[in-house]
Design goal:
103 residues, mainly beta, 4-stranded antiparallel beta sheet, elongated, RNA-binding, Ribosomal_bL21, Large ribosomal subunit protein bL21, structural constituent of ribosome
């Protein structure tokens, strides 16, 4: 069984037992959260697609860790104009262990 969930402005296809990294969620490590924004639920050849959400469908997940992704380096330059700009960014994430999918 799998589900398509929406969290942090992105969509993820998840199955029970998987670990995924999503945008940071304000919760403690070890805490169980319930994601109720489920866009689709599939089981074999069956597929329930919501308009936009599947009513009554939920995904339970446990927070494993918080962290930061690798640094993304931004470099802008205009040739022959003596303009160079350097910038970096590290996006924070939350790692989730997907549990039960109900729906």
């Amino acid at each position: 069984m799998y589900a398509v969930i929406k969290t942090g402005g992105k969509q993820y296809r998840v199955a029970s037992g998987e670990k995924i990294k999503v945008e940071q969620i304000a919760a403690d490590v070890g805490q169980e959260i319930v994601i109720d924004q489920v866009l689709a639920v599939g089981n074999g050849s069956e597929l329930k697609v919501g308009t936009p959400l599947v009513s009554g469908a939920t995904v339970k997940a446990t927070i494993v860790a918080h962290g930061k992704h690798d640094k993304v380096r931004i470099f802008k330059m205009r040739r022959r104009k003596h303009y160079q700009k350097r910038q970096g960014h590290r996006q924070q994430f939350t790692e989730l262990q997907i549990g039960a999918i109900a729906g």
